[in-house]
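Example record for the data management plan.
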Amino acid sequence: MLDQNQFKNPFEGKVRVRVCGILEEDGKFLLLKHLSIGPAGYLWSPPGGGVEFGESVHETLKKEFMEETNLKIDVKEYLFTNEYIDNKHHAIELFFNVSRISGTLKLGEDPELNKKSQILAEARFFSKEDLKKLSQETIHNAFNTAGERDKIAELRGLVTFKH
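Corresponding structural encoding:
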């Protein structure tokens, strides 16, 4: 695992606009384990990433899914906006339902980070029971906001989490 004290996260200290995709298949949700994030030293979060200048949110989400999971997706319904603020990060995240068009799940990497600084550690589908077993500190705050974690696709509006 990366040492949080030695890893300089390039996303710290600025507002970042991200898109995230909720992929549910057979009652299971796809999450990626990100190292060096959160109070536990890792965080399970839906695939997604930062929007680049000139790139639409749909284009970004499709690109990020391919880079991180090897899956080609179709972007469906816009769900909600999550705003996360702590002493290092400020993210505005747009969440969408997505569906798989093709591909076999395979953990990819973040091209914004060099090989030695990769933070993606695992890609996995979680059942409702699996989601319940994750501690609050190890799962994206939007799942905790949803009440029952498998109800994340039912969230609407603006969710703000200030830590």
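Summary line stored alongside the record: The first helix runs from residue 57 to 69.
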